[in-house]
Amino acid sequence: MPINLNYLYNFGIILLVLFLCLLISGFLCTLFYNNLLSVSFLNIILNSINTFFFFFIRVFHNTFANLFFALLFLHIFKSFFFSSSQVLYTFILGVVIFFISCAIAFFGYCLPMGQMSF
After folding, report:
1. What is the DSSP secondary-structure string of 13-59?
2. What is 9-114's CATH topology?
3. Please, which residues have CB within 8 angstroms of residue 109's CB and are 6 or more apart in sequence?
4. Is the whole model's pTM more than 0.70, yes or no?
5. For 76, which of 15, 47, 59, 118 is 20 to 30 Å away at the CA?
6. How remote is the C-alpha of 103 from its chain's centroid?
7. What share of the chain has pLDDT > 90, as a percent?
């Protein structure tokens, strides 16, 4: 094993696994969603009370979304610390991925599934 590799290089793989878990749990959350304005909030509350699986998926998705962004910030700061930002193409691709992740999180935050818009 090379001397310059350490445990901090695992952030990318951890972020990939978290992203895949977020995709799966987000898809499962959309299966329970009803888009009628009069019953959407009540439907989510009743499903959370009556179904342990639905409550677990919502909490899992919310927790992993927060963990994803915390690890994303650590991954960005690690690249600055190890001066990996000198490779311009990789740095620009990382910034684009960061802004796309922020946009997806913003639109997910505004969706009624998270109930932040009510």
Report:
1. HHHHHHHHHHHHHHHHHHHT----TTTHHHHHHHHHHH-HHHHHHHH
2. Cytochrome Bc1 Complex; Chain C (1.20.810)
3. 116
4. yes
5. 59
6. 11
7. 5
